[in-house]
Every structure is written in C-alpha cells, then in structure tokens.
C-alpha cells in the first residue's frame, strides 16, 4: 500500500514522523510530504521517504521575519498544492495531517484518490470541521470527545495519539542549562508553546501557594507575554523553542508534569509525558479526561481553578508513592493503547476500509 502523509506546514511534525515510521514497520510504502522545519532539526526518517514540497521560499534562510514568511506562504500555497496534487498519482491513498487555508485547499484536492484527514484539533474548528469531514473519505480523531464534537458517523474513526517514545531515545541528548542543572529541590514542569488557552497564568497563580519546589515554564510564547505574568519567585521561564535533543533532560528532571489547559482536545506534550512515565496533573477537559478515566495516568483538576491546582500539585509533591503509582500507569498506557504499533494497525485498518469502497 502506497501512502502519502501530507503536512504542508510541518504543524505536527513529531506525530508525522512517528506515524510514518510505524506504518512503514507494518508494511506500508510511506512518503511524508511536508516543508522544511524552521525551528530546529527534523527527526531522521526511519523506513520512509520525505519530500519537502511545500513553501521552499517561506522556509528558506532569507525569510526570517514572520510577516515575510506568511506572505511567501500565501504566494506559494496554490502552486505547491497543485504540484503535490500531480504527485499524488503515485499513491493509493492520501492522508492529510493538516490543511492550511482550508477553503482554498479543499477545492484543489486531487480527484480519484481516497482522502483521509487526521483532525488534530477538533475544538478549534467548530462547524467548519463538520463541513471538512464531509469532503473526506475518512476522518481520524484522537478522542471520543472529538468524535462527539464532529457528530460521530461512519466516516469518523477514533484512534488515539501515540506516546512519543522516540523522544526517550535521542542519540545526541543534551544536558540541562547549568543554571537549571544546579536546582536541588523538586521541579514541576509546564512544557510546550505558551498560548492563552493553555492556562499558564492559572498555573503561575497556583504556584504562589506551593513551597519548596520550582515551576519551570518551558516553551516559545505565542500570543502571551511571559513578562506580563506576575511570576512568583519560585517560577522560571525558558521562553524559546526547545529541540528534541534538549527535551529529554527537562522531562527526566521533572518530578511532576502539569498541563493546566482551559480547553483542549489533545496535546502532544501529554504524550511526551506518557512516554517518559511522568506523574501528571491535568485539567479536567477533553481528551485529558479520557486518559485519566480509562488508564489512571494522571490526576484531574477543574480548569481555571488556581486553588485546586495548587492543592493537587502540593499533595503529589508530598506523596512519592502516589507519584510512582501515576508514573507506572503512564508507562503502561504508553506501552499499550498509546503505542505507535497499535496506532499504526488501527490506521491501516481505516485505510483498508476506505480502499475497499
């Protein structure tokens, strides 16, 4: 089976590479069609091909300013999509991981080839998600919550997001920066791009009541000013993109991972936490709730409640046995239902159904 995974802007690149490698291990001939990743080195292909067919000017060294990059992407989008459309004749099936400029792109989708879309963020789409789903032969979502938002039907398939176990095996893993490596007490980690909906302000407020530990907020701010957050003395910010080679040191050092989102379907950081076997405190929203209810891999807290969040963090920091119990649940989930072999097998079953039609 020849499959093209298509992610024009490399929006979910770690997912792309993990899925492509797992599909290849299970016998699929896979090509990942994407663009150059501008924030750091991309994962090394493992058993599949990569074609950087999108946005060659926008991701080139001369397009450093965000406005210039966006203008170039707009100019390149239609011709690049048409080029990929012509290339699609070599594939049995196209599996889109993200669609940029959906209103335009859906009119350019190649005819005569089955189309599958993984909708990674159902919440953000609203009604447009249902319209987009109608244009596809199959839609994959990661949670029952996402399927309900789309209006579950025969075309909608729930396949979990896989645990990012490849991050635990980085050949050139880098140590923590010296100032962080010198920290002696417990560390609570909040990782990932800092956006308003992720509730970092709630976490910072909650941490005012936590004693004897540090909070590390690690990730590039987007739409949030870390300087505007009235941080407590025991809060540190690492406001930049952290590469895959740097990431393991942060997760290994953390005693607790906290994701205080106001709303979410799924988060890639959660699946890094599962892979590293981290005890977690998660907002009681979307797919987070399903991970805890079905696998016990974390503790739930009402979103937007600093007091409840503070109590959950302090309680777990004071209870090593409970942290280890949650860590064991996380490791078991990562090795079982959230393993990439399981994800690949279920994805191939969707492909076979689509092709059988």
Description of the molecule:
This protein has helices at residues 13-25, 66-87, 102-108, 122-125, 127-134, 144-150, 178-181, 200-206, 247-253, 268-275, 286-295, 306-317, 320-335, 340-356; strands spanning 2-7, 29-35, 49-54, 93-96, 115-118, 138-141, 156-158, 187-191, 214-218, 235-238, 256-259, 280-283, 299-301. The chain has a 7-stranded parallel sheet with strand order 3-2-1-4-5-6-7, with helices on both faces. The protein folds into 2 domains: 2-162 and 339-356, 3-Layer(aba) Sandwich (Rossmann fold), CATH 3.40.50; 166-335, Glycogen Phosphorylase B (Rossmann fold, 3-Layer(aba) Sandwich), CATH 3.40.50. With 357 residues, it is an alpha/beta fold. The two termini are 15 Å apart.
Give a topology summary.
Elements: E1 2-7, H1 13-25, E2 29-35, E3 49-54, H2 66-87, E4 93-96, H3 102-108, E5 115-118, H4 122-125, H5 127-134, E6 138-141, H6 144-150, E7 156-158, H7 178-181, E8 187-191, H8 200-206, E9 214-218, E10 235-238, H9 247-253, E11 256-259, H10 268-275, E12 280-283, H11 286-295, E13 299-301, H12 306-317, H13 320-335, H14 340-356
Parallel strand pairs: 1-2, 1-4, 2-3, 4-5, 5-6, 6-7, 8-9, 8-11, 9-10, 11-12, 12-13
Helix pairs in contact: 1-14, 8-12, 10-13
SS-derived structural category: alpha/beta
Radius of gyration: 21 Å
| Number of distinct helices | 14
CATH class of the largest domain: Alpha Beta
